[in-house]
């Protein structure tokens, strides 16, 4: 007797875009719901933590988790889901690498709360209360989850079996992965749903990338009219294509925007930033300290630019800021 | 499963007294995969070496650590031990516990602690070592020499041997370069033709040397041991096999153009022999000025030729030759003084370059060797201007090294021919290096009627024509002018890179230095090698040089080649090289332009980069540049270096 | 570890800096014992990833030492090192690793005195900066 496969979805600290790429299955979702038991999906179904906890360990065939680990609550839930699941599939860049949310690791929690609750425009009261985890003064009542000291990608908290990169992943990939699971084809441990090679391989502008690129000043998009047929890099615009895994069909390039690196680094580079720095340094024109310093200064926020999606996964992003 | 053997050298008292070796050995023994730890009194001692090879075999050791002196001292020795033990020489790591440990840390506990770290770093690294094959390729023993001036000729003659062919490619119709156009050479006023001609004759009559005049290299591909050069030879409308240089054709040619071999001081015909004594002594047709080549009707030379040597239908030919190595000896050009307004060039016919003066005094020159002004009279005064285009930020910041000597040589030539002519030298400083220059200067300074004028800077001078005189005014800091009126002015012009140097550097993929000359691989330790493996430099194409230096460099370049390119021999390739993983390379080509040795090229079939194993020197620049980590450096993989760092820095156990 | 001196990694290029360090040894100069040397072929082989790996493994400071500009055995490897380190330092500015913990410098072959001075200066600087905040332990459980 074949049983219906069980799947689950959970979101940690995310924007909802990854959930969106599941919802984008549209009518096919009905078929998924028919063929599989969705035992947990907070954004869409009225499923409960306790019911999932009551399952046997390993009962869930695959759980798809997106969003970065930001709160102690996230840890609690994903650890439970790990016990109950044969496969944990991290989807979306936040679960994969910490995502944009990982940039919070440049600050400590106090600074973040100060900024969000007291320094926002429109906030009059500089001593407005900051969120606390419990009501305080020994009172009973609901509690709030606590910010962890730093953001983490999912695999720093639980073992992850497969990754679907992208911010968000392409709806086609999500659909494929979910369909595979409900037909009994679980991903092999360690699998990454992306190309092994960097994006340049599938970029329509590759032929216009010259061998020698010497940039005297890097530019931001708003500063220049760029040629929509030609590789961004010789035009002084920082495209992360050579650093980033392919598999997205170069969507952003086809929309005339440079790649920002959301698919993360290739398997040999465990730090996206080091690949990005290799790329940028190779294009810098100049041989003396002063010229190179000026050139580097022409990049606004280099840290944010190259670690936009992956700071939490980098060794730079671990630990509170100075 | 690796089986690691650790050999710790006591190095006499050097290491033994500074480090607690028994403790180090104990520490090593408890690290994973270590099966054998041994203290050796002196690892480099010949008796020790065979014994250790046996130990390695007896204990089935697969990976070996030698904790001893610097790898700079004995890494090669240790590799030989491994080979003697039948192991690949790269399955080892040297740990420097002497120069970088025992000798710099004077506290025994601290030194031992660091030795443990270094050792553990090596042990963790070693797990990632892989055997590296030593490869050798067949090489073509032939050599291509580009340029037939004194440097190229010296190289060709030194290289000429049985079992090897030498190809000499020369742009102009004759060999000998600039030196063949001089009359006397400094310092001793040797006759240039007398010195050069025997060597040029040797080259032309040597069956093992093929000289291609009126030729240029169009393209180069391949790698050291196996270069392929496409060489174009201009149409030989005068058949060099039939022409005996009788010059009958010259007489009847109706075209006259300025003669570049005499600095434009006289004219030549469109069919010409470059200069009397030019070798090979055959006529050439200048296709730019020849009427027939411009589709106008004229057959004067063909009709006049007694040997039917002229064929107007001859065409350019392109041939490909294979050479194991190549020498660039393409020479220099003189600074064009018309680029500066200081020197009165173009304004007076009696302002000439040092080269033009060479032709004036040459018995085979436009005046039969007589020093005459443009209107055919002996000058009563001659001025030599030093540093024209040299030592100035405006043109060339360097000193050209030979122009002062040339000016003094020429001053003596003036004095020998014209006993009463006033001679002037205008200079800021004098360049008198080596054994002979000071003596030559002293000789000149002792001659009557020579005046020296010191300028405040190398180009602190203004020259202008005034009637039939030339007015020379040194500019002094206080702005006052003192004009000297002279009949003939000779400009000691700078030596600059030849006009085609930039294009040649692209064809051969060698680097230029900041002044536009070919750059040596290393200015101190590798001065005759170009930046590309298998290509060598000789003569003025790499910087101003006198004739003895150019000859020496030609011979040195030949020496380097003879060492590496043995006929029937093989070239051993550098084993530590970059390797591209074709499954990871995205074809982004970020690496391509960064390689100093041109070793990276796109493999169009695979759509990924490929490393030319004959050219790669293993610097790792491309490895660090690859944004997707698709290139690795053999023996220095990311895993190996990460392992080493972990072993060095881990807190526990020390 | 207690009051141990901070650990500093020195990446030394095979042709110049490594021999410079050896020369310090030949002259019996004192070098702080927690400086550990890693031999690389060229300073141009060192990328930011390698430097970050060193910090991850527990280094408090990293030196990348190569040949003087113009002397690089591989022509311009040291220029590439300059570009990479300039960029890395800018990227590190807002992070937990103070860019002053990285030093790129030149040590000629045989210049033991210079190596000793650079090593001592670096140790002084790292001691003044204090310990770098390290990565917390992972909470990964299966």
What ranges of chain C have pLDDT less than 50 throughout 5 or more consecutive residues? Answer: 135-142
| CATH-defined fold name of the largest domain in chain A | Rossmann fold
Gyration radius of chain A, rounded:
22 Å
| CATH A-level architecture of chain C | 3-Layer(aba) Sandwich
Tell me the name of the CATH class of chain C: Alpha Beta
Strand segment count of chain A: 8
The number of helices of chain C is 4
Task: Describe the protein's architecture and organization.
The complex is a heterotrimer of chains A (322), B (654) and C (142). Chain A is an alpha/beta fold and 322 residues long. Chain A is 28% helix and 12% strand. In chain A, strand 7, helix 7 and strand 8 form a beta-alpha-beta unit. The termini of chain A are far apart. Chain B has 17 helices and 36 strands. The radius of gyration of chain B is 32 Å and the shape is elongated. The longest helix of chain B is centred in the first third of the chain and has 19 residues, at 108-126. In chain B, a hairpin with a 4-residue loop joins strand 8 (184-185) and strand 9 (190-191). A 5-stranded parallel β-sheet of chain B has the order 10-7-6-18-31, with helices on one face. A 5-stranded parallel β-sheet of chain B has the order 20-27-21-22-23. By secondary structure, chain C is α/β, with parallel strands linked by helices. Chain C has one domain (8-130): 3-Layer(aba) Sandwich (Rossmann fold). Chain C contains 4 helices and 4 strands. Chain C has helices at residues 17-26, 48-57, 77-92, 112-129; strands at 8-13, 35-40, 61-66, 102-106. Chain C has a 4-stranded parallel β-sheet with strand order 2-1-3-4, with helices on both faces. In chain C, strand 1, helix 1 (17-26) and strand 2 (35-40) form a beta-alpha-beta unit. The longest helix of chain C has 18 residues, at 112-129. Chains in contact: A-B, A-C, B-C. Chains B and C meet through helix 5, helix 6, helix 16 and helix 17 of B and helix 1, strand 2, helix 2 and helix 3 of C.
């Amino acid at each position: 007797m074949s049983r219906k496969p069980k799947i689950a979805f959970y979101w940690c600290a995310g924007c909802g875009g990854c959930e969106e790429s599941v919802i984008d299955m549209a009518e096919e979702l009905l078929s998924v719901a028919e063929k599989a038991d969705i035992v947990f999906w907070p954004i869409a179904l009225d499923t409960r933590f306790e019911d999932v906890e009551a399952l046997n360990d390993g009962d869930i065939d695959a759980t798809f988790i997106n969003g970065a680990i930001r709160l102690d609550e996230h840890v609690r839930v994903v650890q439970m889901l790990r016990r109950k699941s044969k496969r944990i599939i991290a989807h979306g860049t936040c679960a994969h690498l910490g995502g944009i949310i990982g940039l919070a690791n440049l600050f400590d929690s106090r600074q973040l709360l100060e900024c969000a609750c007291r320094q926002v425009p429109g906030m009059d009261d500089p001593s407005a209360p900051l969120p606390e985890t419990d009501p305080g003064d020994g009172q009973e009542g609901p509690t709030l989850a606590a910010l962890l000291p730093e953001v983490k990608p999912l695999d720093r908290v639980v073992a992850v079996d497969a990754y679907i990169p992208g911010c968000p992943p392409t709806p086609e990939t999500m659909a494929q992965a979910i369909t595979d699971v409900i037909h009994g084809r679980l991903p092999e441990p360690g699998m990454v749903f992306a190309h092994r090679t960097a994006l340049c391989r599938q970029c329509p502008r590759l032929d216009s990338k010259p061998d020698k690129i010497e940039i005297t000043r890097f530019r931001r998009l708003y500063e220049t009219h760029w040629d929509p047929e030609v590789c961004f890099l010789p035009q002084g615009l920082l495209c992360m294509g050579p650093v980033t895994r392919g598999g997205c069909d170069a969507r952003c390039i086809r929309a005339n925007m440079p790649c920002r690196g959301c698919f993360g680094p290739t398997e040999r580079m465990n730090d996206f930033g080091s690949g990005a720095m290799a790329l940028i340094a190779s294009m810098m024109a100049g041989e003396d300290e002063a010229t190179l310093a000026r050139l580097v200064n022409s990049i606004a926020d280099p840290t944010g630019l190259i670690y936009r999606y992956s700071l939490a996964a980098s060794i730079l992003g671990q630990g509170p800021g100075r | 499963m690796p089986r690691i053997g650790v050999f710790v050298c006591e190095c006499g008292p050097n290491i033994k007294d500074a480090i607690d070796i028994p403790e180090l050995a104990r520490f090593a023994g408890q690290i994973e995969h270590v099966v054998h730890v041994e203290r050796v009194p002196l690892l480099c001692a010949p008796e020790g070496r065979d014994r250790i090879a046996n130990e390695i075999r007896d204990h089935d050791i697969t990976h070996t650590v030698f904790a001893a002196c610097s790898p700079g001292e004995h890494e090669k020795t240790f590799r030989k031990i491994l080979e003697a033990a039948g192991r690949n020489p790269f399955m080892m790591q040297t740990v420097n516990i002497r120069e970088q440990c025992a000798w710099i840390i004077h506290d025994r506990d601290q030194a031992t602690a660091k030795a443990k770290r270094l050792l553990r770093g090596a042990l963790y690294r070693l797990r990632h070592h892989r055997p590296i094959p030593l490869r050798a390729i067949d090489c073509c023993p032939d050599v291509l020499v580009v340029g037939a001036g004194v440097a190229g000729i010296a190289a060709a003659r030194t290289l000429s041997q049985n079992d090897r062919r030498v190809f000499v490619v020369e742009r102009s119709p004759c060999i000998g370069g600039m030196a063949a156009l001089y009359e006397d050479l400094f310092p001793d006023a040797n006759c240039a033709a007398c010195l050069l001609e025997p060597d040029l004759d040797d080259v032309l009559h040597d069956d093992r040397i093929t000289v291609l005049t009126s030729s240029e290299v169009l393209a180069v591909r391949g790698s050291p041991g196996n270069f392929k050069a496409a060489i174009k030879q201009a149409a030989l409308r005068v058949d060099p096999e039939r022409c005996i240089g009788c010059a009958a054709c010259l007489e009847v040619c109706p075209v006259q153009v300025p003669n570049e071999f005499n600095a434009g001081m006289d004219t030549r015909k469109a069919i010409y022999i470059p200069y009397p004594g030019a070798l090979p002594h055959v006529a050439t047709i200048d296709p730019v000025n020849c009427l027939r080549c411009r589709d106008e009707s004229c057959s004067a030379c063909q009709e006049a030729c007694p040997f039917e040597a002229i064929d107007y239908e001859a065409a350019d030919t392109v041939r490909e030759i294979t050479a194991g190595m190549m020498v660039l000896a393409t020479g220099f050009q003189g600074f064009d003084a018309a680029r500066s307004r200081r020197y009165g060039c173009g304004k007076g016919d009696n302002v000439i370059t040092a080269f033009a003066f060479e032709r004036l005094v040459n018995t085979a020159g436009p005046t039969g060797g007589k020093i005459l002004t443009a209107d055919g009279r002996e000058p009563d005064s001659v001025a030599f201007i030093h540093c024209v285009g040299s030592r100035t930020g405006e043109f060339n910041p360097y000193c050209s090294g030979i122009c002062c000597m040339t000016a003094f040589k020429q001053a003596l030539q003036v004095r020998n021919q014209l006993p009463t002519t006033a001679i002037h030298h205008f200079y800021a400083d004098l360049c008198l290096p080596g054994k002979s220059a000071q003596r030559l200067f002293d000789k000149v300074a002792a001659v009557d009627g020579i005046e020296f004028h010191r300028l405040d800077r190398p180009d602190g001078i203004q020259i202008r024509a005034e009637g039939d005189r030339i007015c020379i005014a040194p500019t002094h800091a206080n702005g006052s002018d003192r004009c000297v009126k002279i009949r003939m002015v000779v400009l000691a012009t700078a030596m600059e890179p030849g006009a085609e140097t930039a294009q040649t550097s692209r064809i051969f993929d060698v680097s230029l230095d900041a002044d536009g000359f070919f750059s040596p691989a290393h200015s101190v330790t590798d001065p005759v090698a170009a930046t590309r493996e298998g290509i060598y430099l000789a003569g003025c194409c790499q910087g101003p040089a006198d004739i003895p230096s150019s000859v020496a460099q030609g011979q040195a370049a030949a020496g380097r080649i003879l060492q590496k390119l043995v006929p029937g021999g093989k070239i051993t390739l550098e084993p530590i090289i970059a390797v591209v993983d074709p499954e990871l390379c995205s074809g982004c080509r970020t690496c391509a332009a960064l390689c100093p040795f041109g070793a990276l090229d796109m493999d169009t079939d695979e759509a990924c980069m490929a490393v030319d194993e004959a050219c790669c020197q293993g610097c790792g620049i491309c490895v660090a540049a690859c944004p997707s980590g698709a290139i690795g450096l053999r023996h220095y993989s990311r895993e190996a270096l990460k392992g080493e760092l972990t072993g060095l820095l881990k807190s526990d156990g020390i | 570890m207690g009051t141990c001196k901070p650990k500093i990694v020195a990446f030394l290029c095979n042709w110049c800096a490594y021999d410079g360090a050896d020369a310090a040894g030949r002259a019996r100069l004192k070098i702080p014992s927690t400086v550990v040397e890693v031999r690389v072929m060229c300073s141009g082989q060192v990328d930011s990833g390698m430097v970050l790996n060193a910090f991850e493994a527990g280094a408090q400071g990293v030196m990348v030492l190569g040949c003087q500009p113009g002397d690089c055995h591989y022509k311009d490897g040291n220029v590439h090192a300059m570009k990479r380190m300039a960029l890395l330092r800018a990227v590190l500015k807002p992070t937990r690793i103070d860019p002053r913990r990285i030093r790129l410098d030149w040590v000629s072959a045989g210049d033991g005195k210079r190596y000793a001075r650079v090593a001592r200066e670096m140790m002084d600087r790292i001691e003044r900066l204090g310990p770098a905040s390290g990565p917390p332990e992972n909470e990964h459980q299966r």
